[in-house]
Every structure is written in C-alpha cells, then in structure tokens.
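[SOLVED] Predicted holo structure with NAP

Edit: marking solved, answer below. Original request kept for reference. I posted the sequence and ligand SMILES and asked for the 3D complex as structure tokens.
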Amino acid sequence: MRSNKVRLNNGCTIPVIGFGTYSAENDRETTEQAIHMALEMGYRHFDTAKIYGSEPAVGNALQEAIHVGMIQREDVFVTSKLWGSDHHDPVSALKQSLKNLGMEYIDLYLVHWPVSLKSRVTYPVPQEDDFEHFDLEQVWCGMEKCVEMGLCRSIGVSNFSCKKIEQLLDFACIPPAVNQVEMHPMWRQRKLRKLCGDYGIHISAYSPLGGPGNLWGSTAVVNNPLIQSIALKHKATPAQVRKNKIHLNSNALSKAPS
Ligand SMILES: NC(=O)c1ccc[n+]([C@@H]2O[C@H](COP(=O)([O-])OP(=O)(O)OC[C@H]3O[C@@H](n4cnc5c(N)ncnc54)[C@H](OP(=O)(O)O)[C@@H]3O)[C@@H](O)[C@H]2O)c1
C-alpha cells in the first residue's frame, strides 16, 4: 500500500490514509507491533493524542524504524492533539507530547475538542462541572506560537462545527490546515465538507468504519446491507469497501489477517 498525499493550505503535504492509535485495550507493546506492521504495509501517517496515551508507543516504534534505516523522519507524518485541560498553554503541552514521542517536531497539532476542561476530569465522559470557559482566540494564539517555534509544521482543529470554524477564521493569523471529524457513510458531514472546502481546510475522517466496539461507535456501517452487498460482489469485507478520495484515519489494520 502506498498512500497518496494531498497538499494542505500551507503548502505541506499529508498522506491521505492514516493509522489511528487510540485503543481502550491495547498495551504499549501491542501498539508498537501494530505500528511496525502498518509501516511494513506502507502507512506513513500516524495519528495519536496526549489523551490516548499512545505517544510513547508511536515515538518508540518510529524511532526503531528510523534506527534500522526503514524510514527517515521526513517520510512519516505524525499528528497529535491538544487536550482540553491543556488549553491554557498549548506550547508546554506540545513540548510534553514531543518528549513523549522523542521527536523534535510533529507534522500536525490539532485542538482535540472545542471544549476546555479543568485539569482533573473524568475521561472519557467529563461531568458537568468539569468544563471551563473555552477561549478559542487564546487557545489558537498558543497553537500559532507552536508553529512559530518550529514545534509543529501545521496546526488544525478536531470536532469543530461550521460555526466554530467561522469563529476561528475571524481572527486566525494562521488558518487551520485540517479539521478532523467523525465521518463515514452514516455521517457524511455534507455541510461541514462544503464549508471547509470553500476555505481550503482539509477534512480528515476519523472512525471511518463507524467505530464499532468504541464507546461512541456502532456497527451501523459494517452491518449496512448496501455496503455488505458491495463487499459480497467484490469478494471483500465491508471494511474494505471505500469510496476513493475519502480520507481515512482507521484502525482497520487490527482486523487484517496475520
Ligand atoms: N479526533 C478525535 O476526536 C478522534 C476520535 C476518535 C478516533 N480518532 C482517531 O481515529 C482513529 C480511528 O478511530 P476508530 O477506532 O473509531 O475507527 P474505526 O476504524 O471506525 O473503528 C475501529 C474499530 O473497528 C473494528 N474493526 C477494525 N477493522 C475491522 C474490520 N476489518 N472489519 C470490521 N470491524 C473492524 C474494530 O473493533 P473491534 O476491535 O471491536 O472488533 C476497531 O476497534 C483512532 O485510533 C484515532 O486515532 C480521533
């Protein structure tokens, strides 16, 4: 598999197919093994976040691959995300992520969710009094500082609605390069895709299989009768049915035959 790349609004390129590293179950060793296998299969884009706890595994697996000469740092695209309890200081949060990853820079840093949280919150479901006022302008100013300091090449957002994107564009000196959102055949984000397309913001799809087995997900995509009939016709699995040009960020490798 060789993943195509697309150009972002700042001139950087991003591999279209990414490998997600969120898992409620996997330990570090399992995640590292999965990343090694993904590299061998041709994945060159790895998606992590502070809150996933997978930054050390991603960093270690990639360092090993660089060490044995399989890849160079410039060959891989690493995305990480700013968690809501770190909104007051994106620069320090990214420095910590870089430490976790053992890297000098990442390719893309995203505001994970458009909500600010107090530092000690219940994850994954915050309670009502865990939220703080979300000062988007101040958070984005910190994100822009991360680019200026060379800690990341591109900045973007995740789980942002049309309204939030428009608010951000009102004051951003560096416009977001990416909006990573849930997107799959049952949730096609038509309005958001149109708006982001108009502003040159790349949409990255998470949970492309509908996140079966995840707290937020369901089997509605993989069990969809139309998708199943297409899979049957092509002697493929429902997870292998995909429309070209949809940008995926999937854990689908977890079901690849060993
Ligand atoms: N920005 C955000 O807020 C955000 C949110 C969520 C995810 N993400 C990113 O997106 C990545 C992918 O999300 P996701 O895990 O929800 O994606 P997904 O690909 O929609 O769902 C993955 C789940 O699908 C099942 N699966 C995998 N391969 C399959 C196959 N071939 N056939 C049938 N089922 C299969 C597995 O469930 P079982 O193990 O139960 O079988 C697996 O855990 C994450 O790792 C993370 O990097 C970002």
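OP edit: The two ends are 16 Å apart (CA to CA). Thanks to everyone who chimed in.
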